[in-house]
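Each record in this resource describes a single protein on a pair of labelled lines. An example record follows, reproduced without changes.
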Amino acid sequence: MARKKQPEKPKKPAIPNAYIAGAGIVEEEKITETLEKNYMPYAMSVIISRALPEIDGFKPSHRKLLYTMYKMNLLTGGLTKSANVVGQTMRLNPHGDSAIYETMVRLARGNEALLHPYVQSKGNFGKAYSRDMAYAASRYTEVKLEPICNELFRDIDKDTVDFVPNYDNTMQEPTLFPTTFPTVLVNANVGIAVSMASSVCPFNLAEVCETAIAVIKNPNHDILSTLKGPDFPGGGFLYYDEDELQKIYDTGRGSVRVRSKWTYNKQDNCLEVTEIPYSTTIEAIIDKIVDCAKQGKLREVSYVRDETDIDGLKIAIDLKRGSDPEKVMQKLFRMTPLQDSYSCNFNILVGGSPKVMGVREILEEWTAFRLECVRRRLLFDLNKKKEKLHLLLGLEKILLDIDKAIRIVRETEEEADVVPNLMIGFGIDEIQAEYVAEIKLRHLNREYILKRTQETDQLKADITELEEILKDPKKMKKIIISELKETAKKYGQPRKTLFYYASDVQEEDVEEDVPDFPVNLFLSESGYFKKITPASLRMSSEQKLKEDDRMICHLETTNRIELLFFTSQQQVYKTRASEFSESKASVLGDYVPAKLGFAEGEFVVQMVATTDYSGDFLFVFANGKAARVPLSAYATKTNRKKLQKAYSAKSPLVQVLQIPAGEEPCAIFMRTDGNRAVQFDASLVAVKTTRDTQGVQIMTLKAKHQVCEARILSAEDAELLKKYRVKTIPATGGMAKDLPGTGQMSLLS
């Protein structure tokens, strides 16, 4: 049977000249107002409700997840599918299941990210120390709460903390957890907010509890005497720097150095690393070792592999025959993340405001928070006991004449009059009468009522005791101290991160690690660098260059030489020749701006080599000025790779000339684009200690002319060009039409 054709719906006619409110309107507004209306609410949301931990040690995402698990009876019940927990948590945190599950993974025991995990796990939860070891999907894993969570939720139902409605006002959630110990210091917590960040390192639970007790008893307690130092879940060895630890404890800022735990397997001639710094991963370590080996910095290493299995972490590093394992390990500590730093920034929300605090201040804030929790708990218990006592006192009056109570109930015609009649008959209030009226018929015997009323004496004693405690803060602090002792005894564990000291650090000469051999260094105008051995250069000396490129620098030196690359943005980048791999003339070489991380549009203008930073630099500028600065001004005690304000920005730089120490007189030749030239001795230019000094005027230039060339003359060239020699500066110089053009000074030699 053919289907009937449906009649076509009439199309709505287009509305000509339709008006859309606000379309095409451009409003002028101060940027401060735009930031205040649009950006500020977002920034405050990230700071207060997302990125920073609060005094209970949790971010909102952690708190929502753990509270959901608590309400699911996962503190005492069995394991359940992670997906089930994730789904339930979305009632409080409607931001996607993946974000919730990632939070759960980090809190789980299987991930090994926390010193004291909060989630007991079954299945693959990845590893915090591995970048590539992915965790299984939530449908495959199972979870429940760890026993330590009893200390998070103790008395949470006794009005110890405030509750607020969830996002859709269907249930209540706590604003904080009434933790019985300073969780904020026990487990690591890292967060990046807007314009601020937080990084709280973990400490040993027993040490934290002991320190908290000591601070409660004595606010001037020496923190360092009980809180020895951070304790990381991954173990390793912490460098014990008392001054740095004291700084962290006082200010909440600083960094600690952690190195890996290792052993030497003599039979297989390999180093076995079993514990690594908390701030790195297996893959990052292996990648760095491989990179250093390729560059020739770790010639003792033949192979590196990841042997991590069900028994735990292990990185095996095979050594070449004859290598000293101790010395190789010291090199690895220096060159790779096998030794790394953990930066501390104790930025914590207190009363809704971010605050960077030291350990003492954190413990004082936590104590104040815990005191309020205990006070509210005691007040809750007090009110409950008072309510119960009030009911029992009413029951006690009924005891005097049970038959009368039964008769009043039986003879009352309407149910609504039962409570008023009992109130009149026994002189009790409405609450007491309601309680009496609800007693079961089987309980209207003298024995039952007598047993219940005997509790009144104990209740009166308990009420008196609670009222005394509430009046005395010292007694409430004793409760906190007893809970801290109980927690430390129940959940305390030995330190995982041990200490090493300055005496354990072997001082080695870094230069010994760098092989020394002759090399030729080339730099092109486009910024391509080549390090070529003399043997390779003899085999092929023809340099490969990009189109319109040319060599601007050629040095015959050694592999240990230090290099300074001056750039177009008045900066100098410091490195070593050994940092570059060996090359050939037939390749373009390393691109220096990419290798050293130049800014966009920044390029090399000059390369200089030095071993001991002796001698001076002579910076020649286009405006005819020259500045003499000692090389020592560019030497730094730290391994700084970049120095700003390397030279003056007042005029374009023409050339950087290196004047060796003790080799004066040193003849300098300068020429302008108007073919005027001058020769002068470098001693005429006074040495300035400031790197970006403008220098002194060497040549007086005519309008629209500038210096285009400068170089150090050999003794023969100086004698050849003696007619341009001047004894005082500034000078106008002589005409140099008979000399080769710019860039051809080498023809004089």
In short: Residues 664 and 683 are 7 Å apart (CA to CA). Residues 261-337 form a domain with the Gyrase A; domain 2 fold (CATH 3.30.1360.40).
